[in-house]
Amino acid sequence: MKIIYIANIRIPTEKAHGVQIMEMCSAFSNAGNDVTLVVPKRLNNTNETPFDFYGIKENFKIVKLPVLDLVRFGKIGFWIQSTNFAKFATIYSLFKKSDLIYSRDELPLWFLSFFKNNLVLEIHIAKNNFISKRVFKKVKNIIAITQKLKDFYVKEYGVDEKKIFWSPDAVDLKNFLNLPDKNILRKEFDIPSDKKVVTYIGKLKTMGKSKGVEDIIEVFPRILEKNKQAFFLLVGINKSEIEDIVKIFEKFNINQESYKLVTHIPKKKIPEYLKISNVLIMSYPNIEHYALYMSPMKLFEYMASGNPIVASGLPSIREILNEENSVLVEPDDLDSLAHGINIVLSDDLFAKKIGNQAFSDVQNYTWDKRVAGILNFLCV
Length: 380
Hints:
The protein is an alpha/beta fold and about 375 residues long.
């Protein structure tokens, strides 16, 4: 089967959606399909190929279409660029034979909906606009990354629930095989071997919304009170954020010997940082997007590491995690967060138990299994 995946993204990009799209294209190809990823040709700050950048095997084609690269000029520039790319992607797709046209972007599918009926939209956020209304009506099927997102579109748009398939994000388990010894990695990353490492990996914000990293910093003095060897590892932040983050540590009297900041790292290094950790944190605040509509890839990477997880007990998180494979804490509750982290750090047997269960559970959430489920739903 010939699949065209349309994505209005800079490729490669350090943002998570780039990883997700590349992994999906690779998994579609693994399933025996002829896959072409269609993206805009944009300025980039790396000379690496997308396959090298993400550590993904080169088993599909990437076509870059010329566009007016005006994203740096704000909302108007982004709108011009998006419309420009959507039109070029539509023309490309009309003249290329395909059995399936797949995208996370509504605008190119809106144009194509006047000509094609083999369209599939994957949705990651809740939207309500005139473009969405036509797209949801005309596409063959919709893939939603959370059950609550599926429920939203059934309720708000009247979409037939049989048309929407719930499929959360996933992980490539091969990236977690044959990693160097934990002590060797700690030495490489300059993390003392006797420390109990509390780790958060990811950006500070999504769509301008805090991911709760400030809460981890605020409760860390309480962690140090009960676990003198605790050490906070913050990985994946932007260089421009370091100064502000250091000020937060200083505000709560956390000295530099108790934490380490690491800016953006290659995707292939994430499993190594996870391996050296004693507990992995996701302290998302209780706001609509996080509570109902997100399926963070870090969740599945955390699970694949086999290390214990402490996470906000939001509905979206509870679609995957439970009290058997993690410690779920009350969102926006600093006491609950501190207690959850301290429990894991003070009880090695419990930590190992929930970590092992998470690793067992994540075997069902690989990219290949995700694609297999989607293709089965599409009956192709």
